[in-house]
Write a structure and sequence with these properties.
Helix content: 40-55%
Function: The GINS complex plays an essential role in the initiation of DNA replication.
GO cellular component, one term: GINS complex
InterPro entries: GINS_bundle-like_dom_sf, GINS_Psf3, GINS_Psf3_sf, PSF3_N
Oligomer: single chain
Low-confidence stretches: 136-148
Strand content: 5-15%
Organism: Trichosporon asahii var. asahii (strain CBS 8904) (Yeast)
Subcellular location: Nucleus
Structural class: mainly alpha
Number of strands: 3
């Protein structure tokens, strides 16, 4: 997971919205809320991560961790990580891991969020590898308890889809590459 300035995936992940609360009155920004000319202290607005980070670092806003990383999601991940549909948590494209990692870098208590992200990835890796190796046969059920390959695939987060594609490509190159060299 790169945070490169020119990385399209990093740009897409940073466009997800983060709920922020303004800590002081800000003139001429009322259009963000759609009501007044000025934003008052205590106003809650959802802002793209890249803007929320800048405003938070300058102590103009505070933010709370979005529900996609809250206690309900933590409990669901602990119960059965492969069964959780991460693709629907943070909007278009997913990027649940990248968005969470960026929030963790801004948040004082970020280590617990990073632990949750790592734990989710580790527990979802076996069905992800199984999916890549068996090309997501929707007929049979997966060995690791995620249900059918199709149900797990529909809940895959964007980084997981990229990872499974990379695993399939590596398998294909190692298997078919050897056969064509003979």
């Amino acid at each position: 997971m790169d945070n490169d300035y020119y990385s399209l995936t990093a740009i897409l992940a940073e466009n997800h919205k983060l709920p922020c609360t303004f800590t002081l009155d800000v003139p001429e920004l009322g259009y963000l809320e759609g009501t007044e000319r000025d934003l008052k202290a205590g106003t809650k607005v959802e802002l793209p991560l890249w803007l929320a980070q800048t405003l938070s670092l300058n102590e103009l806003t505070t933010f709370s961790v979005p529900p996609a990383y809250g206690p309900r999601v933590r409990a669901a991940l602990k119960a059965s990580a492969p069964a959780v549909k991460l693709s629907s948590f943070v909007g278009a494209g997913g990027w649940w891991y990248r968005f969470g990692a960026r929030i963790a870098s801004m948040w004082d208590n970020g280590d617990s969020l990073l632990d949750m992200l790592l734990g989710a990835f580790v527990h979802r890796l076996p069905p992800l590898q199984d999916l890549a190796a068996h090309h997501a046969s929707s007929e049979g059920s997966m060995e690791h308890g995620a249900g059918t390959g199709e149900s797990f695939q529909s809940g895959m987060e964007a980084d997981e889809r990229e990872q499974s594609g990379a695993l399939v490509k590596a398998w294909y190159d190692s298997t078919w590459g050897k056969r064509t060299q003979k």
